Amino acid sequence: CERAGSLAVQPLHQRFSQQGSLLSFVFPTQPDSQLDQHFGVTVLVFHDFQGGVDLPGTHLHGWQVTSRSNMPTTWNARTEYYHDAFDGWRWDVSTGIATRPAPQWQASVDPTFSRSVDARQYVATRAGGRAETFGQRYIFAAVERSTLSARFRVNYALTPNFTIEGYAEPFAASGRFAGFGEVPAPRSNVLRVYGDAGTGTTFEREADGTGTVTDGANQFVLPALDFRRLSFRSNLVLRWEWLPGSTAFFVWQQSRFGQVLDGELVRPQDLWNSVRADGDNFVVVKVSYWVGKR
Question: Which residues contact residue 137 at a Cβ distance below 8 angstroms, ignoring those fewer than 6 apart?
Fold first, then answer.
């Protein structure tokens, strides 16, 4: 039996297939419980086991917590972890809060962070490969990525006919490449990593970020792929319905972008740096007039 204050456990979704299974559970609080009265929390737990014979060990785990939707202030939090057969992984964390303290006010913020390692990112194709790969070198690398972003929204109604709406989204993303190598044969799950012992190859990173590969008498250059990019987008909209059916809009939009080639993991200060990056400003004025009997 269940008592007030306990969490009820019920399967939300269950799927089985040849590749694996997806199991989800939701933990809704009891309507008369103290937890529901103060927080109204719903917890979602999900697991996804995939892979089968070809890709064993691929799995996804996650948690999601949400508040009741009928509260003046609502919030949510979510995290996911994914792991694949090549030891690649991804970790995502996101949260959000929305509030309406008064009828004329509404605001929300939704920050998101993600970090991942993709062990099999295609990079380039070069000539001079083995006969097993038809004379071509199909080159892959491991890439470590990170992204950080936040979406801000604020709406305010000075009067029923005059409103101000604001939106801003700073964003930062980075990628760092390492472990360059080629596929030795079709359908192979391993790489011949340049510079590793026993491969007969060397790999030298140049000052400009490019990489020089020497394989016996052959030598070729791989492009500089590391990056850290910043962007900022914002909109400010003033809406005035000066006559019934007739509306005037004033829109100010910003679009900013910055980039460095260091590949460092993003940091919280990168969001602020995106606001100060170079960019463009756009201003639009639109007036509509309703013609007809009043």
Answer: 125, 126, 127, 128, 129, 182, 220
